[in-house]
Amino acid sequence: MVKALPGWIGLVTVLLLIGLSIWLFALGLPDAPWLRPSPVLLAASAVLFLVACICCNGLFVVQPNQARVLVLFGRYTGTVKADGWYFVNPLVSKRPVSLRVRNFTSPQLKVNDANGNPIEIAAVVVWRVVDTARAVFSVEDYNAFVEVQSETAIRHLASQYPYDDGLNEGELSLRGSAEEVALALKKELQDRLEMAGIAVIEARISHLAYSPEIAGAMLQRQQAAAIIAARQKIVEGAVSMVEMALDMLDQHRKVELTPERKAELVANLLVVLTSDRAATPTLPLAR
């Protein structure tokens, strides 16, 4: 394993090599014009200067929330994640990998929900790299891998749930169970991206709608369901009010009602209470 040293050690090494190269170059020059220069000293000076230039390649800086993956002759030798100035073997390649939190917004995908209805869905995935070695060596391009796997997970998730509340009580749906669906999406994404050394921080649906070809029909269905639910509440309230009125008449005993009159009273009260228009009173004709 290659160990990264503080950058000042590399800088001092480079300066010493350059200084030694200059000193040997000075020694290799003749003191007088008629003397020949020393080829050995001049060659050693050139070699030391070349080594100093190569050693400069071993100096590198790691920014905050960034890492450098070190590879020596095709072999992974470690990762430097702490920010700072470092020096390593100049022959080691240093590939930068960002550790910052990133967002991926999927395009609007057209899929079928659990009931077979075509819907449009999109999601936002918040992720970051936690294992640099797997991110670099396990997949070809981890950014493209996140995009492809996110779209695949969104399509699979949409096919597991109905768009709206199902017929069975307590059944999860894409629109009515946002938290549960978000947790399921996050778990599926984490399972898919684990091999690339990526951690999913959050995943949520950002767009959800019926496809345009059925949006009108589904809107009418939702409106009809809302009207039915409202009418049911009105009927329940009207029945309870009629029962209360009959009980109060019986308790005060001010009016004696025959079964026929009671049935007529109940019918009139239900008509008045459940009608969506104001009641119009009518007077019986005198005989």
TrEMBL record:
<keyword id="KW-0472">Membrane</keyword>
<feature type="transmembrane region" description="Helical">
    <location>
        <begin position="7"/>
        <end position="28"/>
    </location>
</feature>
<dbReference type="Pfam" id="PF01145">
    <property type="entry name" value="Band_7"/>
</dbReference>
<dbReference type="InterPro" id="IPR036013">
    <property type="entry name" value="Band_7/SPFH_dom_sf"/>
</dbReference>
<keyword id="KW-1133">Transmembrane helix</keyword>
<keyword id="KW-0812">Transmembrane</keyword>
<dbReference type="InterPro" id="IPR001107">
    <property type="entry name" value="Band_7"/>
</dbReference>
<protein>
    <recommendedName>
        <fullName>Band 7 domain-containing protein</fullName>
    </recommendedName>
</protein>
<feature type="domain" description="Band 7">
    <location>
        <begin position="57"/>
        <end position="222"/>
    </location>
</feature>
<feature type="transmembrane region" description="Helical">
    <location>
        <begin position="40"/>
        <end position="62"/>
    </location>
</feature>
